[in-house]
Please model this.
Amino acid sequence: MPQTAPPLSRLPIYSDDGHVHVVVETPKGSPNKYAYSEAFGAFQFKMVLPEGTSFPHDFGMIPSTKGADGDPLDVLLLLDAPAFPGCVLEARLVGVIQAEQRERDGTWERNDRLVGVAVKARTHAHIHALDDLRPGMLDEVEAFFGHYNQLAGKDFRVLRRGDAEAALALVR
Model:
């Protein structure tokens, strides 16, 4: 009898060589936000961004983790070309944007964004720390998340940026 594969949200956190697994939910350039639904075992359409707005990089989750918001940890993924929803790949974490967002009920909730580089990426192979990113890139990403949350009726504020060790500590 064939074994059933676990849901994407329950895959192992780490690959055999110690990198983290990432499940892409929304590809770079997409104006549509998708999120994996364990209940459906599929990707669910969440919202469409305004005309001319799109995700600046692939966005997904690290399976078998749980952030302060109760969802798997979010990861912004640097890759040579956009992947697709459901693509599983290995990444090395280079940092974290520690942030919180105000929910519609007025409460503030932590919702950090890990930053990772696909292990097999070529154009981003030199990136091992947030300082290796081009100047202004993190400011642009933070502005995107601020705007994105505003569209969903939430506020988003960055608390601080952390290095790769801070990102790995969140995963642990």
Remarks:
- Residues 106 and 154 are 9 Å apart (CA to CA).
- The chain has one domain: 8-171.
- The longest helix spans residues 137-151.
